Amino acid sequence: MDQVLHPHVLPFFQAHGNWVFQHDNARPHTARATQDLLHRSGIQVMPWPALSPDMNPIEPFWDLLQTQLNRVVPRPTTVADLDRAVRQAWTNIPRQASNTLVRSMHRRCQAVIDANGGHTRY
């Protein structure tokens, strides 16, 4: 909460108004303290069933980032080294890659519908 919600999420929602927050039901997101803070702050959370297909295009983007990080030699040994490596890896991913992922959302959603909510290739 001190590293993400207070310094980033809450100010974003305060500055941008009526948005809906989506998360993936990871334990830190569903912890009572987190849920209470979001509720007290008036942040609407999108219902997201446990074990639902993960259709968020950020997930394959993380894979692209990991691929870039795996190429870093020498491996980062400090937090500062890791920070620099992540920032450089992020900038090395072509914008076209993220655009392609976002444009794939229609196909992803259709695949979930076709699979009646079950497993898809995504």
From TrEMBL:
Signal peptide: none annotated. InterPro entries: RNaseH_sf, Tc1-like_DDE_dom. Pfam families: DDE_3 (PF13358). Residues 18-71 form the Tc1-like transposase DDE domain. GO terms for molecular function: nucleic acid binding. This is Tc1-like transposase DDE domain-containing protein. The lineage of its organism: Eukaryota, Metazoa, Spiralia, Lophotrochozoa, Mollusca.
